[in-house]
Amino acid sequence: MMDVPALKEVLRKSQEPQGCFFNRTQEQVDALLQGLLTNRKRYGYMSCPCRLASGDRNKDRDIICPCVYREPDIHEYGSCYCGLYVNKDWNDEVVDHRRVPERRPSADKR
Predict the structure, then answer these.
(1) Mind giving me the DSSP string for 14-80?
(2) Which reactions appear under catalytic activity for this entry (predicted)?
(3) How far is CA 76 from CA 52, 101, 107, 109, in A?
(4) 84-107 pLDDT, tens per residue?
(5) What b/e string do you get for 16-47 counting C-beta neighbours within 10 Å, with b at 16 or more?
(6) Full-prediction pTM beyond 0.85?
(7) DSSP reduced 3-state for 94
């Protein structure tokens, strides 16, 4: 079973080359990574811990981390919805830290 430090290293190596960095607030990162591990154990996949997963992988495909909303969120706000991934400018406080709105359609619109 993977733990938070191991998951952090795997994701760091795969995401940083894409320009996606972990939020500099380590407590938040660790809590979100623990949520991903909990969801993997619960559902069999790492759905975003900030969104309600259905337990159906096909219905939740858009929120499997990194979710499909991450790229547009980071492009527009410098951070993804849950704040796990940010760009360098966000961590360096070059851009304002604004609340990222939910892009995922409500369940009745999916």
Answers:
(1) HHGGGT-EE-S-HHHHHHHHHHHHHHHHHHSS-B-TTS---S-HHHHGGGBSSPTTHHHHHHHHSB-
(2) [thioredoxin]-disulfide + 2 reduced [2Fe-2S]-[ferredoxin] + 2 H(+) = [thioredoxin]-dithiol + 2 oxidized [2Fe-2S]-[ferredoxin]
(3) 23, 11, 24, 23
(4) 999 999 999 999 999 999 999 986
(5) eeeebbbbeeeeebeebbebbbebbeebebbb
(6) yes
(7) coil
